[in-house]
Fold:
Amino acid sequence: MTKKIESHQNKILKWVKGLSLKKNRDKEGVFIAEGLRFVSEIPEEWEVQLFMVSEDFAKEEELGCYEERAQTYVVSDELFALVSDTENPQGILAVCKKQEEFDETIWKKEAPFFILAEELNDPGNLGTLIRTADAAGVDGIFLSKGSVDVYNGKVLRATMGSIFHVPIFQNVSVQEIASKMKEQRISLFAAHLKGEKYPYDLPLTKGCGFLIGNEARGLSDEAASLCDCWVKIPMPGKAESLNASMAAGLLMYEVVRQRLK
Structure:
């Protein structure tokens, strides 16, 4: 069913606009997926609370597939711009339920492969890391307290829809996750400039995880001490370090390389 919203004061419009704030997303347990490609990535089994489209979008696109799934609202282009988080809105967004809470079955996979990040703050970095993790077949991403909200609009756009494909758990304790990995005999490796091994020397065909640090500070001593081994990426050039998502990507694809054999 489609309904039209014509007023700035409409409560649904105000509610959607309010979801730009983390406190409101947390309270409602939802987030906004914006843009045609992003919306098209939403799995059939994922709960969508509503769709909102601009009048121009409604003129150009068939809305039946959206109407069948959730309440669909049509608003003027001007009103859509008020709820959009982009400079050039494509005229469609969906309000989606967040992922379920932590699922213990994640530990029962054969040779699981995880990423644990400590205070990753840059939205673009996190979004890129999630997208790369999706491509590399990572089984789960754990984000420590102090990391940027995974449902931040910039993070979501950078994932290009991969937010729907990888289990992501926020506000975790690095110590608790490291202990759980040890209990499950999953090796945890710290990406560290003082690493004693290269990733190519690590046994990555069995259960493993990489701990990635803050963009500016790297890993805290406490977090690094929880790992089985510190690993470094060779840098024969003059750069002192790599972008966090780039470093994570290189490490993830070493796992892929070893497991393709």
